[in-house]
Amino acid sequence: MVKGGEFHERHLDMLGNGILNVDGNMWKLQRKLISHQFSAQKLRDVNYIIYKSNSLKLLQKLALSTSQDIDIQVYFLTLLFKYVNSRMDV
Question: What is the DSSP string of 60-88?
C-alpha cells in the first residue's frame, strides 16, 4: 500500500519518518534493517522465553487460588496481554 504525502504529513507528529509512515526507498531501507529481527529462529527463541515466563506465573497464581471455581478466561486474557506487551519491548 502506498501511503502518499498526505498520509505522511497527517501522521508525521505521531509516527515520524518510521516504517509505518514512509514509502518507496525509505520504506525498503527500514524494512531491510528490521527484517533481521523477525527471522523464524529469533521469533521462536523470544516467544519461548516469553511464554515460559508468563506461563509459570499463571501456574503459580492458579496454585495459590483458594476458590473451587476459577474463571480461567481472566487468567488467559492476562497472559495474552502480558505476551503482547512483552513482544513490543523486543
Answer: HHHHH---SS--HHHHHHHHHHHHHHHHH
Q: Where are the domains of the chain?
A: 1-36, 39-90
The 10 Å Cβ neighbour count of residue 22 is 19
- Quote helix, strand, coil % in the chain, to nearest 5: 80, 0, 20
Cβ neighbours, 10 Å, residue 73: 8
- At 9-40, the pLDDT tens digits run 898 888 888 888 889 998 899 888 888 777 78
The rounded distance, in Å, linking the Cα atoms of 12 and 9 is 5
* pTM score: 0.43
Three-point CA angle 17, 23, 25, nearest 5°: 95
**pLDDT value at position 61?**
79
